């Protein structure tokens, strides 16, 4: 029988961010032999890697935390309305510690290949250190935004200064005092990091390709009264997790903006602007699905940018045009636009003067050369699929996942892939992913996968595989849900448009976490309809 008969684990988890930690914890409680591999030297995933100055969540702390455990919720007290990276990382560490997970995780170990052995019905998983383990089930918890993307700009390797990607920020403090810093990219990361870098650096040049909509966070410390009131809100939050589109409540007027008079409309939007956070996009019911309605909201935000940035030319370059607000991830940052009023901060519009090359000493555009000591790449991720397709996963008959997804990823419910038995993908493409509160989505996916594994074990079954027809049907549902939104009006990482050569397919399920949960529940209640179990 040799190696074929060896099975090291019932379930191997890849990744020790929130998804991997919660999965591991549930598997441990359910009595499975389980283990996790993690590339980093600690837990936390996104919040382990994104240590750039200003990194902070854009969902309120009291919503961006686990709810499956009342005691955990009661005992953890958040300090700010929107928690900063170090506090969220501490929360992840606290979670891992409390659940006794550290002995179950091998750190600094990247998985470099996973092959399904159809004869044994077992996954063979190889690490960067050359070890191979065999596991009955494999669960990926590798994150939607973990495969950092640095564009191939000519000359990039010649740069003699320091180079950082926001998603791979060093653990040691980076001293930017007196330095000339270039930031490439103006998505959520670029927009968050700029005000902080501008505080330290002597000069900052922001290289912007697409202007982005950004709203103030309105961050502040939570009051003692707010902190004390939180445990009593637990039951309500749990209820909202399954009955709302995002997994938490984003209160709105319940009215269409198009049916709202100018004065009231303005008053509501001003109120939301002052409140801060993304609630402005939920203020009215039609701004996410009707272009005319969306334009009213977008114009409000454009006017705010013009009113904030004192140089009219810079302001106009910063104003997003040509795509609806909310169809790229809405950015949240206190002080982003105002930072351009500082004398040592300059905007370069790459649409007018594209980058020609990175030189040894800076960046040369078609218009000018910018001497720089530090280059910050806030250029995003090969989102949703990159971490999976970079891992060399092969399923039944040696079919490669990367090859299978060449024309765009297809999955069943975002949780499983036909041809890849016993592989489960937490927050995989086709799930609600970043279009909902990630922690709510993770709790749902983990619970659902755990229940399926327990069901298999109870029935003495060894294999679950998504059926190709169910997968096709789900891909149609993902596309149909997107077609009812405004997302398809915009090129973004949601559809793979940020990576050269990547298939253009809208990847997240945009029908809402509440609807998604009901679908997954009905699949389970129906004996895991769409899976073949054996
Ligand atoms: O990445 P992005 P991100 N030359 O892909 C530009 C989450 N997150 O790291 O738009 C010049 O959004 C690119 O330009 P364009 C959140 O889900 C959350 O900022 O493609 N520029 C864009 O401006 C977020 O959505 C928080 O034209 C180039 C930028 O780089 C997601 O992570 C904080 C370029 C990339 O923006 C990703 O955000 C941070 C090139 N060759 C992240 N290539 C919170 O607030 C790319 N760009 C919780």
TrEMBL record:
UniProt superkingdom: Bacteria
Gene Ontology MF term list: flavin adenine dinucleotide binding; N,N-dimethylaniline monooxygenase activity; NADP binding
UniProt family annotation: Belongs to the FAD-binding monooxygenase family.
InterPro entries per UniProt: FAD-binding_Monooxygenases (IPR050775), FAD/NAD-bd_sf (IPR036188), Flavin_mOase-like (IPR020946)
Keywords: FAD, Flavoprotein, Monooxygenase, NADP, Oxidoreductase
Pfam families from the UniProt entry: FMO-like
Gene3D superfamilies, per database record: FAD/NAD(P)-binding domain
Co-factor(s): FAD
Protein's recorded name: Cyclohexanone monooxygenase
């Amino acid at each position: 029988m040799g190696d074929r008969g060896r099975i090291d684990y019932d379930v191997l988890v890849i990744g020790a961010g929130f998804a991997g930690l919660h999965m591991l914890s549930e598997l441990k409680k359910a009595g499975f032999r389980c283990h996790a591999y993690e590339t980093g030297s600690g837990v936390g995933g996104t919040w382990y890697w994104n240590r750039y100055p200003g990194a902070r969540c854009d969902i309120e702390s009291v919503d961006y935390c686990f709810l499956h455990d009342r005691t955990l919720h009661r005992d953890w007290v958040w300090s700010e309305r929107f928690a900063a990276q170090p506090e969220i990382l501490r929360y992840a560490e606290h979670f891992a510690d409390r659940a006794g997970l550290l002995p179950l995780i091998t750190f600094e170990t990247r998985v470099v290949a996973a092959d399904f052995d159809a004869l044994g019905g077992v996954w063979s998983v190889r690490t960067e250190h050359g070890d191979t383990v065999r596991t009955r089930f494999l669960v990926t918890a590798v994150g939607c935004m973990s495969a950092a993307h640095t564009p191939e700009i000519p000359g990039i390797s010649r740069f003699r200064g320091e180079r950082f990607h926001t998603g791979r920020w060093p653990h040691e403090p980076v001293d930017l005092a007196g330095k000339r810093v270039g930031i490439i990219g103006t998505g959520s990361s670029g927009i968050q990091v700029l005000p902080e870098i501008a505080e330290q650096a002597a000069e900052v040049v922001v290289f912007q390709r697409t202007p982005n909509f950004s709203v103030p966070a309105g961050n502040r410390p939570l009051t003692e009264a707010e902190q004390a009131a939180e445990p009593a809100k637990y039951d309500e939050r749990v209820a909202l997790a399954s009955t709302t589109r995002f997994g938490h409540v984003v209160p709105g007027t319940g009215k269409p903006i198009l049916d709202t008079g100018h004065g009231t409309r303005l008053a509501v939007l001003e109120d939301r602007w002052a409140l801060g956070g993304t609630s402005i996009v939920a203020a009215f019911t039609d701004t996410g699905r009707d272009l005319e309605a969306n334009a009213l909201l977008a114009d409000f935000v454009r006017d705010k940018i013009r009113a904030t940035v004192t140089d009219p030319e810079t302001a106009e370059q910063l104003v997003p045009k040509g795509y609806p607000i909310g169809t790229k991830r809405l950015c949240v940052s206190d002080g982003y636009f105002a930072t351009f009023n500082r004398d040592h901060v300059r905007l370069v519009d790459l649409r007018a003067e594209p980058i020609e090359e990175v030189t040894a000493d800076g960046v040369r555009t078609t218009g000018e050369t910018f001497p720089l000591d530090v280059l910050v790449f806030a250029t995003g991720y090969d989102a949703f699929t990159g971490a999976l397709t970079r891992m060399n996963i092969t399923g039944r008959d040696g079919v490669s996942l990367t090859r299978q997804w060449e024309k765009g990823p297809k999955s069943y419910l975002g949780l499983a892939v036909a041809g890849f038995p016993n592989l489960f993908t937490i927050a995989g493409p086709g799930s609600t992913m970043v279009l909902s509160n990630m922690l709510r989505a993770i709790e749902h996916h983990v619970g659902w996968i755990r229940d399926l594994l327990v069901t298999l074990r109870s029935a003495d079954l060894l294999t679950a595989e998504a059926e190709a027809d169910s997968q096709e049907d789900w891909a149609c549902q993902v596309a149909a849900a997107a077609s009812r939104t405004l997302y398809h009006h915009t090129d973004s990482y949601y559809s793979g448009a940020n990576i050269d050569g990547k298939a253009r397919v809208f990847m997240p399920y945009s029908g809402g976490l509440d609807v998604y949960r009901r679908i997954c529940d009905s699949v389970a209640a129906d004996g895991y309809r769409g899976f073949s179990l054996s």
